[in-house]
Amino acid sequence: MSQSLHFVVSSSRSPNLTLPNRSYLKLSPPPSNLRFPVTFVRRPISASSSDVDSNSPSKVLVSDNGKGGVLPATSPEYVPPPSDSSSIDVDAVTEADLKENGFRSTRRTKLVCTIGPATCGFEQLEALAVGGMNVARINMCHGSREWHRRVIERVRRLNEEKGFAVAIMMDTEGSEIHMGELGGAPSAKAEDGEIWTFSVRAFDSPRPERTINVNYDGFAEDVKVGDELLVDGGMVRFDVIEKIGPDVKCRCTDPGLLLPRANLTFWRDGSLVRERNAMLPTISSKDWLDIDFGIAEGVDFIAISFVKSAEVIKHLKSYIAARSRDSDIAVIAKIESIDSLKNLEEIIQASDGAMVARGDLGAQIPLEQVPSAQQRIVQLCRHLNKPVIVASQLLESMIEYPTPTRAEVADVSEAVRQRADALMLSGESAMGLFPEKALAVLRSVSVRIEKWWREEKRHEAMELPDIASSFSDSISEQICNSAAKMGKYSFALPFPLQI
Ligand SMILES: Nc1ncnc2c1ncn2[C@@H]1O[C@H](COP(=O)(O)OP(=O)(O)OP(=O)(O)O)[C@@H](O)[C@H]1O
Ligand SMILES: CC(=O)C(=O)O
Ligand SMILES: [K+]
Ligand SMILES: [Mg+2]
């Protein structure tokens, strides 16, 4: 038991968020869904799953951390009971058990899928759950509350009827500057040299050609001729060439696809112009209504976009506590702005977890600094014992293609190697052509790197920072640390003693 953190969910109506293993030290008695012992299952050498190297007699640990700790036979992590007589016994799993107990996967890296038009149907959600989705994310930037309510209802039904344990994460829109809808069109192509008009005016439908509505009234006053306008962190770029009243004329310098409600940033003399953004509230009035909706729907996580300080997290946590006294909705701080990097430690301390939201982060700091920012955020979360999600563009090419690039696989591997607790799909699952394949790539890469990590790590000394704040907690902590070390070394025993 290291600092590994789990999005552990049960098969109850509302899956539970279980905080880091060692945070149980602070709970007395332990939560009812935490049950040891663990069941050790030997995977037959002939197992065909890609999750484990089938050339070695690998062992797969199926923990009983949920209620019963069993995997649906349809789950990719399900290990069929061994048939040879030398096998170690495992519990027989009946369908009733599955419905009763749900499952906890053996994979430590949890997988979050953003749900959009490509994945909102019941069968599509089921396919993702079978493929290893642990958390369904709904992004309040897109779609109506009614649309999101239907998604939540389907995920809950999936959990109840099929024995899955998928949690729901609601992600707020935040009040950064962004484009409006594209008059119903899924995207618009901006070509090199074209002149586009960005305006605070609402355009009639159909939208006039090469016009974009901007959500922020002060837009035309704030930009200056000569500024560079970045859509979605630089996926498309424009130079501001003229201002005419509420309209800002821009020439496209880097062509690309404009997506509805894409984020806009503007740069002057090589620096991000962010005075105005600093004045906008982190949680807008629309966000508060969405948060009320999330509380009423009993979502498991609320992820707050563009967090600037710890105060907003504390405020939201007390708001949630006041609104629903027995609620265990966890608040995730999205790290995607310069301000959030400046106040990183206090923000993470105040939150129940963090997300490295690389999409917008890459629009606020130079791209080459994003990997080191990710490393710093993940390490800090590890140190502070908070779960951390690495998000955005992990498998971006799979929005259009059925296989990832080698560079994308390397990026996913690196996030798992850093010990991110969860990886997130955005456009790949929300509106891509291959959501299930993208999820399968995340799953197989996670399991492969975890296995490699365990093999490497078993030779290293275990360093667990002290987190107990009282004498009695530190006794529990020492006992748990010793148990973790014993567990670690039992894995290092040679076969056949190894179980
Ligand atoms: N509920 C939805 N309805 C329609 N399209 C959606 C929905 N959710 C996501 N999408 C599409 O998938 C894309 C990627 O989703 P994602 O959640 O990453 O949003 P985003 O606009 O990049 O913002 P954020 O910074 O909040 O992640 C979106 O740009 C949008 O085109
Ligand atoms: C996930 C998200 O909000 C981002 O990457 O910007
Ligand atoms: K969002
Ligand atoms: Mg973002």
UniProtKB/TrEMBL annotation:
It catalyses: pyruvate + ATP = phosphoenolpyruvate + ADP + H(+). Residues 47-58 have a biased composition (Low complexity). It comes from Vitis rotundifolia (Muscadine grape). The keyword Transferase applies. Its cofactor is Mg(2+); K(+). This is Pyruvate kinase. Residues 47-89 are annotated as: Disordered. GO terms for molecular function: ATP binding; kinase activity; magnesium ion binding; potassium ion binding; pyruvate kinase activity. One of its GO terms (cellular component) is chloroplast stroma.
